[in-house]
Amino acid sequence: MHVRTSSRHFRTLGTGTIALSVGLGLLAGGLGTPHTASAAPQAPSVAAVRTNVTVSRTVTVEAATSTRVVTAAQPIGARVVTEAARHKGKPYVFGAVGPNRFDCSGFTLYVYKKTVGKKLPHKANLQQKYGKAISKAKARPGDLIIIRRGSYGIHAAIYAGNGKMWSAPRTGKPVSKQRIWSSNYVVRRLA
Asked: Which Pfam families match (predicted)?
């Protein structure tokens, strides 16, 4: 991450003086949510400045008259979904494992291997035994979805959020984002 700093803005907190700059604002925990840093005299507590530190968002910081955009590392789930989306429109071919054509478990096998280095078997029923079991209510984008008939896994996909999944559905239907079409499925977290 490249950060430019300036020492011309100061803020007094308690008995000490802290140089307030765009860089210090980011390094002190400002990566939690997008916000505006300024030299206007406000008295946030040091504890408030250091909460919610993440490195998974794009933050726009305004200082003086310039705007800088800092892009932090993308979270793993987002990388999985981004890679899945890259294959939109590629054809379904039974037994194919990519990168130009896929079947359902070949698609998930390829995407997880490429993004997180997880090696999965080429069969939906076997893939449901990998990773950590997650409740449907706690599913996050990037999780593995296995649609089942009874307890047997019949289709593999990648959760995209909002009740949708990235999938290589069937012959004649290319890789696409679609609604999760069954209520009988399990969620597994691989990353």
From this structure: NLPC_P60
